[in-house]
Known about the structure:
Layout: E1 16-18, E2 21-25, E3 37-43, E4 56-64, E5 66-71, E6 75-79, E7 83-86, E8 92-95, E9 102-110
Amino acid sequence: xxxxxxxxxxxxxxxxxxxxxxxxxxxxxxxxxxxxxxxxxxxxxxxxxxxxxxxxxxxxxxxxxxxxxxxxxxxxxxxxxxxxxxxxxxxxxxxxxxxxxxxxxxxxxxx
Length: 111
C-alpha cells in the first residue's frame, strides 16, 4: 500500500490578526484528528499578545527571530530553535521588542 504524506504549508498570506498577533489555526484540516490543537503565530516588531491563561498546556516551537515570553513575574528571552513549555493556568503573553518578525508554532492540549 502506498504511503501518503500530507503537508500543510505556512501560508503567510493567509494569517489573520487576533489576540495581538498574526496567526493561522491548524484546524480545520481535512480528516485530521489529533489530541492537540495548533497555530502558526507571527509577532511583528512591537507586537504584544493579550495576557491570558487557559486550562491547556502549551508548547511553543520558535521558528525564526526572537521574542519574550512574559509570565506574572518574569520575562524569558527566546529565539529560533528554542522550545517553551507553559503549564496549564499560567498567565502569559508573548512580546516582540525587536526589529524583525518573531515566528513560532503553538501547540496546546488538555492537561
